[in-house]
């Protein structure tokens, strides 16, 4: 059926957004040096070069997160994903990458595809990932070994899956915020921003 090639369904939208998070998280971890560059391999996607982890533990962790995320996106029960970068020694939050997710829940009632081509959506996603890559020009250097954590905000009545735990918001004291581009599949809209700890010595 050709209409689904031109349009986007809820399932297709959930897959595209989950895929964006997979590449986006990998890009942040690579750009910010959370894992050594030699543990990444270059792939081409969205007509651009991207880095994907080859670390087996990290790969497994991210696959589980993205699989769960896809389910929540399909059910329209996820509101936000936050990647937090903390100092390994002090546990202080240094950066907070926040992706707010809006979902048009009427897509659950109607299976008719929305009129937006996958290519247009992927072009928008490419712009967001380009911006993530460009942030290294203004983000302060992470001078200590760092760790990362992923926080997912879902509808309140959603049961927390096994292996996931409840967490606080992990806010940064005295932060600067930079709003990044957004993209929309016409079913899901993702707004991105990064907050980072100010390094001025006031």
Oligomer: single chain
Give the integer mean of the pLDDT values. 88
The helix content, as a percent range, equals 25-40%
* N-to-C span: 62 Å
Coarse morphology: globular
Instruction: Round the Cα radius of gyration to an integer and report it.
Output: 17 Å
The largest pleated sheet is described as: 5 strands, antiparallel
Give, in spatial order, the strands making up the sheet with the most strands.
Answer: 5-3-4-7-6
Structural class: alpha+beta
Keywords:
single chain; 202 residues; five-stranded antiparallel beta sheet; two-stranded antiparallel sheet; 31% strand
Detailed description of the structure:
The protein has 202 residues and is α+β, with helices and mostly antiparallel strands. It has 4 helices and 7 strands, in the order ααββαββαβββ. Strand 1 (40-45) and strand 2 form a beta hairpin. The chain is globular.
List strands and helices in order, with pairings:
Elements: H1 3-6, H2 10-31, E1 40-45, E2 48-53, H3 56-74, E3 78-87, E4 93-103, H4 118-134, E5 146-154, E6 175-184, E7 188-197
Antiparallel strand pairs: 1-2, 3-4, 3-5, 4-7, 6-7
Helix pairs in contact: 2-3, 2-4
